[in-house]
Fold this sequence. Notes:
YbaK protein; 5 helices; single chain; 25% helix; 3-stranded antiparallel β-sheet; 5-stranded mixed β-sheet; alpha+beta
Amino acid sequence: MDVLERLRQEGVEFEVSHHPEAFTAQQLAAVEHVPGRNVAKPVIVQADGEYVVCVLPASRRLNLSAVGDALYADGVELTSEAKLAELFPDCELGAEPPIGVFFGLRTLVDYQLMADEYIVFQAGSHTRSVRMAWSDFERLTDPSYGAISIS
């Protein structure tokens, strides 16, 4: 499933950018000339057997203990690359979008990401990204929220 096509189907307004390869969220912030706080970095975890897309600003790190607390989970671990390829078959490894609903996954967003009017994220490719209004992202994903990141 192409992320851009799915966004169009959902009627969401967004801008697409084609840029040099960016393999990390902070690299994406640099090539797009936006603050790291505006780049939505997805980290996929397994929490008590359920895969969850955790979304936080590129400038922060995921706190697995806090994710467990937010999800009321006994065990939380990072997802393997092999499983990521299975969960996101049409995406380049490491360029998964932060929209769990497109892949049948729950989305958990860090409160820090809500501070600005827009977000930027990888659109399934290391050379293509999307910029969209925070309000549209929130409506589309219907996420849960938590204080799941640290500086």
